């Protein structure tokens, strides 16, 4: 995964059409939450901006090295509202990541506060960097 | 007015229209179309605003922000919002993605009619800021009785 720093674009969440067939039961646009992904020696840390989602309704799935996050979001205003400014839409969040690290799936932790989902994906023991002592001898 | 309900940034027509909107709102917003000014320029947080009979509502998505990182002020028919998102640098870590905005962002939104500054209310929940601006007495819709001649 390469580094990707978003600089000069407007701060909105991009809309996406990519979604699994199971999710398409309701028509509509899904939004791709902006994410920070940080790797430390111990874990992969994912922070996803999902304002307006309810913590108990967020689905996080990790299967076969693919991490997917989904949250349903209901519109906050009636359809007939006349907007004076309408610069972003409100809708469900969905994003998937291919994770190349070996992750200990049983220890994944997720927290949600103030519109941000934080995921801790601890690396499997075999994947942690390990210092190897070099002994003298030949 | 940016009326697209769903932003599909990949659609070329929408992109062209957005660019045109930005150019025009930048040129014309202050003198001619004053109350519509505040079309978001790059680096500014996106805002939704709508009118109800007795108040204006302004909504902004500010995930990860706590109350002390937000500054709201109403003066002279304008609402100004200032957002300060500190950068969190993890020591000894590698960033694979860095999409969440950091830094200070500010926006001034001109309000179309007079509002009652004393009664402005703001709520922050799940990363969504909603500012409710009740119209002043003079600006509220008023039924006019037609009396027989």
Can you characterise this structure?
- The complex is a heterodimer of chains A (138) and B (149).
- Chain A is mainly β and 138 residues long.
- Helices cover 0% and strands 36% of the residues of chain A.
- Chain A contains no helices and 10 strands.
- Chain A has strands at residues 15-16, 30-31, 35-39, 43-49, 59-63, 66-71, 83-86, 93-98, 109-113, 116-122.
- Chain A has a 4-stranded antiparallel beta sheet, with no helix packed on it. A 3-stranded antiparallel beta sheet of chain A has the order 5-6-8, with no helix packed on it.
- The model of chain A is unreliable at 1-11 and 17-25 (pLDDT under 50).
- In chain B, 11% of the residues lie in helices and 35% in strands.
- Chain B is mainly β.
- Chain B has 2 domains: 1-39, no CATH class; 43-89 and 100-138, Immunoglobulin-like (Sandwich).
- Chain B has 1 helix and 8 strands; from the N terminus they run αββββββββ.
- The radius of gyration of chain B is 19 Å and the shape is elongated.
- Chains A and B meet through strand 3, strand 4 and strand 7 of A and strand 1, strand 2 and strand 5 of B.
Strand residues, percent of chain A: 35-45%
CATH architecture of the largest domain in chain B: Sandwich
Poorly predicted regions of chain B: 28-39
Strand arrangement in the largest pleated sheet of chain B = 1-2-8-7
* Sheet/helix structural class of chain B: mainly beta
**Largest sheet geometry of chain B:** 4 strands, antiparallel
Give a quick account of the main beta sheet of chain A: strands, pairing sense, barrel closure. Answer: 4 strands, antiparallel
**Largest inter-chain interface?**
A-B, 46 and 49 residues
> In angstroms, what is the radius of gyration of chain B?
19 Å
Give me the number of helical elements of chain A. Answer: 0
The total count of strands of chain A amounts to 10
Overall structural class of chain A, as computed from helix and strand content, comes to mainly beta
CATH topology of chain A: Immunoglobulin-like
* Overall 3D shape of chain A: elongated
């Amino acid at each position: 995964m390469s580094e990707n720093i978003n600089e000069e674009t407007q701060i909105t969440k991009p809309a996406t059409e990519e979604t699994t067939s199971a999710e398409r039961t309701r028509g509509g646009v899904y939004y791709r939450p902006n994410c920070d992904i940080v790797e430390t020696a111990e874990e992969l840390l994912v922070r996803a901006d999902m304002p307006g989602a309810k913590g108990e309704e967020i689905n996080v799935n990790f299967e076969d090295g693919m991490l997917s996050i989904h949250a349903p979001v209901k519109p906050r205003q009636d359809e007939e509202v006349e907007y004076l400014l309408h610069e972003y839409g409100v809708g469900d969040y969905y994003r998937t990541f291919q994770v190349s690290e070996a992750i200990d799936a049983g220890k994944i932790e997720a927290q949600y506060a103030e519109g941000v989902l934080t995921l801790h994906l601890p690396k499997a023991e075999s994947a942690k960097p390990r210092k190897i002592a070099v002994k003298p001898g030949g | 007015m940016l009326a697209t309900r769903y932003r599909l940034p990949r659609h070329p027509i929408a992109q062209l229209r957005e660019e045109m909107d930005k150019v025009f709102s930048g040129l014309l917003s202050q003198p001619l179309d004053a109350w519509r000014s505040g079309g978001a320029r790059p680096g500014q947080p996106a805002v939704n605003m709508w009118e109800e009979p007795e108040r204006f509502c302004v909504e902004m998505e500010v995930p990860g922000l706590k109350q002390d990182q937000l500054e709201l002020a109403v003066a002279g028919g304008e609402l100004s919002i200032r957002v300060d998102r500190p950068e969190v640098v993890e020591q000894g870590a590698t960033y694979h993605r860095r999409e969440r905005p950091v830094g200070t962002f500010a926006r001034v939104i001109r309000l179309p009619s007079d509002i009652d500054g004393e009664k402005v209310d703001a709520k922050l929940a799940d990363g969504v800021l909603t500012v409710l601006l009740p119209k002043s007495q003079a600006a509220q819709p008023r039924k006019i009785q037609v009396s027989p001649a």
